[in-house]
Amino acid sequence: MFTEREKEILTKLASKESMYISDITNDPNEIENIKKKLKLGSVEYMGTHIKLTQVGRDCFGEILKIQNG
Q1: Which residues have C-beta within 8 Å of that of residue 31, sequence separation ≥ 6?
Q2: Predicted TM-score of the model (pTM)
Q3: How far apart are CA 22 and CA 50, in angstroms?
C-alpha cells in the first residue's frame, strides 16, 4: 500500500514528531502521492477507511504496528 519512504513520513506524523507533512518533506511529488493514497484524509485498512483527524493519527500509528508485525 505505502512505500518505505511514505511509511517513514506517516510514522513521523503518527508519532507526533511533526504536525505537518511539509515539516518532513518539501518534495511535492511525495506529498501528492501520499495525498492520493490517503483518500479524503483517511487510510484504507482491510477495506475500511480510517479518518486521519488529530486523533486519527494515533489510529494510523496502530495500523502501522499491525502491518509491520
Answers
A1: 21, 22, 25
A2: 0.51
A3: 22
What are the cell numbers at 65? 504496528
Would you kindly state where each structural domain of the chain is located, as residue ranges?
Answer: 4-67
Question: Cα(49)–Cα(23) distance, rounded to whole angstroms?
Answer: 25
Single-letter amino acid, residue 56: G
DSSP label at 48? E
6 contacts 34 by C-beta, under 8 angstroms: yes
Residue 48 confidence (pLDDT): 57
32/65 Cα distance (integer angstroms): 24
